[in-house]
Amino acid sequence: MDSKYLSSLIAAIEYGSIAKAARNQGITAAAVSQRIQVLERELNTILLNRVGHTAKPTDAAMAMLGRARRIVREVELLKNDIHADSLSGTIRIGTISTALTGILPGALMELHRLAPEIRPQIVPGTSSALFDAMSRETIDAAIMVIPPFEIPKRYQWHSLHSEELILLTGEPLRWDVAQTLATSPYISYDPNSWGGRLAQQYLNDNHLTPRLLLELDGIEAISLLVKEKMGISLLPRWPGLTRISPKLVQTPVGGEYDRRIILLVRPESVNGRLLSLLVSSLREAGET
């Protein structure tokens, strides 16, 4: 069984379309269909139901999907095992949006300088979604907020930096933080998100109930709304905030409410030397 055929099946399932899978793999749709038909003959079962332009996996395909992903990834890693010193191949990195616009670009430039044969594939998402992707083994590493629970022992994690909680306003404060929160329209960083729970914890600890204007999970979008003076917000001071909105006023609130950013890794999927380079590049980018 050719692992490339499994790769085409995985792509068809993930993209929900033979045509999209073909574009992703750089081959024709006919070639993708032929690969999947070969697999169906070898396994003596139907793997995809084709309806119009869509392709839906059968129960059999879903039952083998996890193992198929592991097989394809292990084959990809063989080259790294043989050429451990040269560092080549693909690494799939999930990232929260603030890292995507903050530390990741600089880190990728440094990584390319040190290991030009490495091909990163970037997958954006929320911290909880990235953790789910790690558990499904669809990504190898994730830049994310540290989970509010104990990290399973099958993963490695590396601390990258901490982001202090600030009150973000469009103009200098006339009153202290508590009175400003009590009297201004408040744009809430979603308290159900792993980062937003820290802002909510600050409000709870200080017995504050702001006048809620709206609630969002995207803190870049929140900062832009604050820039338009629609309201104020409690947000982590992430690298890149000043570049997006340099004139916004950032007032630290103090206390133990820092948002901790980590790199979560499936160690069996990432070469040890590459991991060291990635962690150091991310940390360095977070300091600039």
In summary, what is this structure?
With 288 residues, the chain is of the alpha/beta class. It has twelve helices and twelve strands. The mean pLDDT is 90.
- First-to-last CA distance: 48 Å
Count of DSSP-assigned helices: 12
Low-confidence sequence ranges = none
The main sheet comes to:
5 strands, mixed
Rounded average pLDDT: 90
Approximate shape? elongated
Count of β-strands = 12
Order of helices and strands: HHHEEHEHHEHEEEHEHEHEHEEH
Helix- and strand-based class? alpha/beta
For the CA atoms, what is the radius of gyration? Answer: 23 Å
Proportion in helices: 40-55%
Question: Largest sheet, order of strands side by side?
Answer: 4-3-5-12-6
Strand content: 15-25%
How would you describe this structure in keywords?
288 residues, alpha/beta, 5-stranded mixed β-sheet, 3-stranded antiparallel β-sheet, 12 helices
